[in-house]
Amino acid sequence: xxxxxxxxxxxxxxxxxxxxxxxxxxxxxxxxxxxxxxxxxxxxxxxxxxxxxxxxxxxxxxxxxxxxxxxxxxxxxxxxxxxxxxxxxxxxxxxxxxxxxxxxxxxxxxxxxxxxxxxxxxxxxxxxxxxxxxxxxxxxxxxxxxxxxxxxxxxxxxxxxxxxxxxxxxxxxxxxxxxxxxxxxxxxxxxxxxxxxxxxxxxxxxxxxxxxxxxxxxxxxxxxxxxxxxxxxxxxxxxxxxxxxxxxxxxxxxxxxxxxxxxxxxxxxxxxxxxxxxxxxxxxxxxxxxxxxxxxxxxxxxxxxxxxxxxxxxxxxxxxxxxxxxxxxxxxxxxxxxxxxxxxxxxxxxxxxxxxxxxxxxxxxxxxxxxxxxxxxxxxxxxxxxxxxxxxxxxxxxxxxxxxxxxxxxxxxxxx
Length: 416
Description:
Layout: E1 16-18, E2 31-34, E3 37-38, E4 40-42, E5 48-51, E6 54-55, E7 62-64, E8 69-72, E9 126-130, E10 135-138, E11 148-155, E12 158-162, E13 166-169, E14 177-186, E15 195-200, E16 208-214, E17 220-223, E18 228-229, E19 235-240, E20 247-254, E21 263-277, E22 284-292, E23 314-321, E24 328-331, H1 334-347, E25 354-361, E26 370-375, E27 387-393
Parallel strand pairs: 1-4, 2-5, 3-6
Antiparallel strand pairs: 7-8, 9-10, 10-13, 11-12, 11-14, 14-15, 16-27, 17-18, 17-20, 19-26, 20-25, 21-24, 21-26, 21-27, 22-23, 22-25
C-alpha cells in the first residue's frame, strides 16, 4: 500500500489502514505499509513492514480538508517525510514526486511536472567480467527528460533490478550461451524499449567449477514467538529488534546439480552488514539447518542461544556477525567453509533442493533494540543480496599403468 485512501465515501470518518487475516483464518504476510498518512493503523496480529508513515489528525496537515483538498500545507510534517525505496514515484495527480525524500500522503508538495515520455534504452552495455556462473556489465546513463530510476535485466528465470550503472548476474550455468534482455525505467514509471544480447560463459577449468548462488526471495526473518515477519523487506534484523521480540533470519539457497565426479571443496556465505544497532550483548552465529525440496521457510526454523547447544541444525561459524567487523560485505571463514561443504555433501540429493542457513543471536534473550541488520533477498540492488559461493572440484585422475608378470632368467655365463 503506497497511496492513501482518500476517504471519498465516508466523509467525516478519518482514513485508516487495517490489515486483516485471510478469510480462511491464516495470518496475512508480506504487507508493506509505507509513506501513508492516517488516523489509525490496525495490524490485528498480521505482520508486515510499517515505516515512514504519519499517524495524526489529518485535518491539520492538509490545505483544506473540509473542501477535500488533500495537498500538504507548507512546512507540514508530511513534506519530505517519506522514502523512495519501494515507494510511489507519482502522486495521485500523476505528477512526479521528489526523488530523494518524497512526501507522505497522496500528493507531493508543489509538484508540477508530468512525464509520459519513455526513457532511452541502454545503448552501450559493456561486459567487464565473468566467471563460470556470473557475468558483470556496466553502462552509461541513458538520456531521459527527467531521471532514470531503475534498470531491469531478464535472464533465464531471473529478473534483476538495480539503480546503479553496474550489475552482476549470478547463478548462470557454466559454458552456455545466455540471452539477456534489459530495459530502463524513469521516475514516472515509463519504460524504455527492451534490448537483447547473447553472451557465452567462459569455459571453466577442467577440474574446477565456481558457482555464485543468489539467496531465494523466500528468505524470512522470524520472531522468537515463531511468527514470520517482514516478508519482502529489504533488510533482516538478528537479535532484539523491538521492545517485545527477538528475531533470527533464515536464508534458503537453491543447490546446483553437481556433475558426476565433482565434490564440494568450498562453501561460503556472504551477506552485506548494514548496521550494528546499540551494541548488542551477543554475536550472531551461523547454522546449517536443513536441505529441503521446497524453498518455504518454516516458523519452527527459529532458534537462538549458546553456540552449539541447538538440538537440530549444524553449527557452522560462531560470531559470524559481530561488533568488531566492518560494515559491508562479510564472508564466512575457512573453517566454516569446511563445515558447510561437509553438510552439503552429507545432505545432497540430485533432486532439486534448497539449503537452509540460519543466522541467530547467541543470547537466549537479547536486550531490546540491539541487533545486527543485513540486506535481504528483497533488497532493490541485487549486488547487496546474500550469496552462497561454491567451489566444485573434480579430482585429477591417476594414469593406470599396465602390469605384466616379469620372468627373471640367469645371466649369460662368461665361458673362458
